Amino acid sequence: MNSKPLIKLFRTNDKYYMYDTNKNTILNISNKQYNSLENYMKDDIDHYIDSEEINEFYKEGFLSSNRVKDIESPYNGVLPSYLDSNVGMIILQVTQQCNFRCEYCVYSGNYLNRTHSSKKMDISMAFKGIDFLINHSRNLSKIDVSFYGGEPLLEFDFIKQCIDYAEKKAEGKKVTFYMTTNGSLLTDEVVEFLYKHDVMLTISLDGPKEIHDKHRKFAFNNCGTFDKVIKNVMNIEKKFPQYINNILFNVVIDTQNDFSCIDKFFLDYESIKDIDMISGVISGNNIKSIIEMNEDYYLKVEYELFRIFYYLLRKHNTKNCSRIVIERYSQILKLSEELMPQKMLSEKAHPSGPCIPGAQRLFMNVDGFFYPCERVSETSELMQIGHIDTGFDIKKVTSIFNIGKLNEDDCKNCWAIRLCGVCAGALDMDTDEKEFSKKKREECCKNVKASLEEKFKNYCFLKEFGHSFDKNEEMTVFND
């Protein structure tokens, strides 16, 4: 048993800190305390630090060597009953066909996943999926139905039938509809129907024409798609101005492109600048080739993050700050909410990363197979968690939910166990043994801890300069 305290030491430019995992608390400590603890943690010999300053921490309950003894979710026993009554969303794979051929798409052939095909979901299969959601959401008053592809609007009549069916069968529940689309098929007829049924729309848009068209091209002629998508967005703004509030842009960023050019586009382009957006770099998960990173891109991102910090600390409007990088601050804000003092880690626990597979974003493909969400590989049998005709495979759900068992000893001694973000969907499958890759999880753990330490530093930096992380104050600063 490791008798060393379960802590993480880190520092900003001027100050020294300790994150105590058992307490889930960050403490500002002195240079002397930092050095003493640092030397102690490096020392191979386990012994009690006989220091007056350090002893004060022990008296307050800090520096405990308490560790989780069994890496297992305490909710394993209730998974069947939970999934029987708390499924909140179903994502229907309307079709595996798409009228685009995007080079970075997970279905492009460049990833360990299926490729585009002519397969589409039968309407009876979709109705069974909607029934499954309704029957397995008895504890919920609100449910979500989402349409995914390929490009779902290739099957517009199918979607209309699904929405009509769900609205009639929901039995008093509030149903919200979502769709992810490339934006090329948003005719007046389509938009009028989506507007009437209050469908939340995620449109893929990667930046200005020269950048968007680099990867996102029509399948039939290999030409860029920017002009068509922007024309449709502008038409919605003109004819259905209220529906703009239901639109969200999904921005996939190639770091080889100029960050400033992309950032300026979403800040200044008239028909775009007031529409909400989310962003992320091209996924390296299960990709067949190595993605080259552009140092200049990340330097510009760090500079924009500094600008956001400056405006926040001066309580100025952040409206003109990077809309892409502001998401980094949102992650720090989330961390501030998670850093609530806790009791000692229990004997049985699991890293915090995995959601309950199937409860939040149940994905059903055209053949009726269930997956935890739309982001996992459909070619992985490990990620198949059931079928519409047989229900959930609780054994597979439990395996994914307890992915920490893969590196159990590492998890027991990990300072980040409370704030871990490792998801089974990010792990490559070992194709020889048909198991999740332990090596891949070790790499993910390393990246998660590095990212979390950076968030710690930024959080403490802002606190040092008086930032309060008050939500009401944030809204004033962001929207003033």
Automatic annotation (TrEMBL):
MF (Gene Ontology): 4 iron, 4 sulfur cluster binding; metal ion binding; oxidoreductase activity
Named cofactor requirement(s): [4Fe-4S] cluster
Keyword Metal-binding found: yes
Superkingdom of this protein's organism: Bacteria
Pfam families in the cross-refs: Radical_SAM
Keywords for the protein's UniProt record, in alphabetical order: 4Fe-4S, Iron, Iron-sulfur, Metal-binding, S-adenosyl-L-methionine
UniProt KW Iron keyword: yes
Domain Radical SAM core: 82-319
Family: Belongs to the radical SAM superfamily. Anaerobic sulfatase-maturating enzyme family.
NCBIfam families according to UniProt: rSAM_ocin_clost (TIGR04068)
Stated name of the protein: Cys-rich peptide radical SAM maturase CcpM
Source organism of the structure: Clostridium beijerinckii (Clostridium MP)
Organism ancestry: Bacteria, Bacillati, Bacillota, Clostridia, Eubacteriales
Originating gene: ccpM
